[in-house]
What does this fold into?
Amino acid sequence: MSHLTDLPVWAAIPVCLLLLAGSAISLIGSIGLIRLKTFYGRLHAPTLSSSAGTILICLASMIAFAVLQNRWIFHEVLIVLFVILTTPVTLMLLGQAALYRDRIEGSTDVPRKTTGPEPDLSAIDI
Amino acid sequence: MRYWFPYPLLSLSLFALWLLINQSISPGHILLGGMLGISWAWVMVNLQADRTRLRKFRRIAVLTGHVAIDVLRSNLAVMRVILRSGNRPVNSGFVTIDLSLRDDNALALLACILTATPGTAWLEFDRQTGVLMIHVLDLENGARWSDLIKRRYETPLKEIFE
It folds into this structure.
């Protein structure tokens, strides 16, 4: 890590600020996981770190290594792209699972399915 | 031509991705990336993905700008909600939206947009009726949210994809 000391001050300041902002946002997202009370509310908290947190930390990394190695770094752009492309998959999976379970349990907080077959209650042992 | 290049845009983006990951434009990487791009497009043929033509590149630029602004704004909004949630109960709820968008790729993109903006989570889409259910963290007004998503995202996506 010693080569990080080669970073000039004018680059170190924005890198530090971006890193701190990114980590603060990720921290707030994690606090949200505790503070929000419902499962669906908690779905929103980690998206803070997967969007703004990732983008800010990747920006910091781009600036730091662009200055240190004197070239443009694109790997971070790809990281942001992949994170944005893949989070909906996990999120939908979790959301669908929660919806399915709430409907099976007959929870009134969850809207009914508009059409299509209702979940088969007889097949499942609750 | 169609036989060799079933998904030209996909091949091209895979090729660009390969060069970006390796950070080099040496002839070896260009050859390897080209081969990978073309052969992975053949894999996609078996998955029978919808083939869509992108149109109206100006709309794409405008939509990208809108999404960037919304991601920023909703990040701030969700942070405020989380930090205040100790004092004030969170007013969250489900919103159902009637979508007229049917293109698979456009719907996938809409899912990415809605997920990337914190505060909205895509929960369920009914393919038969076209009803989308999302969960909104800070629900002021259900009709406003459904209006916003229809106007800001669905209309431009329809213009771009259909």
User: Anything to note?
Assistant: The longest strand of chain B covers residues 120-126. Chain B touches chain A at residues 17, 20-21, 23, 71-72, 75, 78-79, 82-83, 85-86, 90, 92, 94, 96, 108, 111-112, 114-124, 126, 128-129, 131, 133, 135, 137 (CB under 8 Å).
